[in-house]
Amino acid sequence: MTRENHGDIANAAAAQPDRYAVVGHPVEHSQSPFIHAQFAAQTGQHLVYERLLAPLDGFAATVRDFAAQGGKGLNVTVPFKLEAHALATRLSPRASAAGAVNTLCFAGGEIEGDNTDGVGLVRDIEVNLARPLRGRRVLLLGAGGAARGVLLPLLQSVPAEIFIANRTPDKARALAAHFGAQAQALGVRLAAGSWHDIAGGFDVVINGTASSLQGDLPPLPANVFGHDALAYDMMYGKQPTIFLRFASAHGAALTADGLGMLVEQAAESFARWRGVRPRTAPVLQLLRERYAHQTDSGN
Fold first, then answer.
1. Among 31, 98, 119, 134, which one is most buried in terms of CB atoms within 10 A?
2. pLDDT tens readout for residues 267-297
3. DSSP 245-261
4. 81 an active-site residue?
5. 34-72 pLDDT, tens per residue?
6. Cα distance between residue 155 and residue 153, in whole Å
7. Domain spanning 118-257 has what CATH number?
C-alpha cells in the first residue's frame, strides 16, 4: 500500500463523526437525537446521535457491541437504567447514590456510568425557572427510582428541608435513611412519611411519581403550596399534567413540567462526553415548539 493510500485511510477515519445514541425499549419516541443534534450544531462538535433499540433481554450485549464498533457514549432510558448501573465498571458518586445510570462513556476499556437526572432537575429549577433552592422547604412526591435519582443533587442545593412523601411510607423512610448521612453533613432536614403526613405549605413541590402518566393525582392537602410556591412535575405532556392543573387551582405561583429537566440532563451528558457545555435555553424553546405537535413523552 502506498503512502498516499495510508494517508487517505487516515483522513477518512478522521472524518468519521463520533457516534453516540440513546438506548432503550421502546426508544422511537425519544427526543434525545433532536436535542443532541442541536447541541452539536451549536458547539461545532463532529458527531452523530442515534436511537438504539435493545432487546429486553439483550441490553448488555447491545451496549458492548456499540462500544466495540467505536461508539463513544450512550444515554440510557427505560427500562435499562438499573442494568446500566450494574454493567458500568466505574460509577460517578451521583450514579452510586442514585442506584441508576442514564449516561455511559466508553474510554480506556472502561464503561463509566453517570446519572445526570438530578443535576438536570436542579439546573432547570434554579437557572431556567430562577428559583434558588437554598433555604427552601421542598416536598418530594414518590420514593421510586425517579425520586432516588434526584435526591442527592437536591440535597446538595442545601434547602432547609426535604420531606419525602409516598403511598408506602416505609419506602419513603428507607429512602430518607439511605441519604441521612449526606443530609446531616449538609445541614438539611430530611424526613419522610405518607401522603397524610404532609404538613404546612412548601416552597417547592416536586412530583416524582408516574401518576401523571395515568391521569392520577396523589391525595395532597389543598394547602400544600406555600406563598409563591413552585409546582414541578418531572413528567411532561402536550397539555399540563393533572398535578400541574391541581397546583394552579390551589395556589401555586409557578408551575413547570419536566421538559426543561430533559434538556438539562442531556446538556450534562453532552458536557461529560465532549468537554463543552451547550446553551440550553434555545434548545428548550425549539423542543417546546416541536413537542407541541407530538403526543408521546420520554428521554
1. 98
2. 999 999 999 999 999 999 999 888 777 654 4
3. HHHHHTT-SEEE-THHH
4. yes
5. 999 999 999 999 999 999 999 999 999 999 999 999 999
6. 5
7. 3.40.50.720
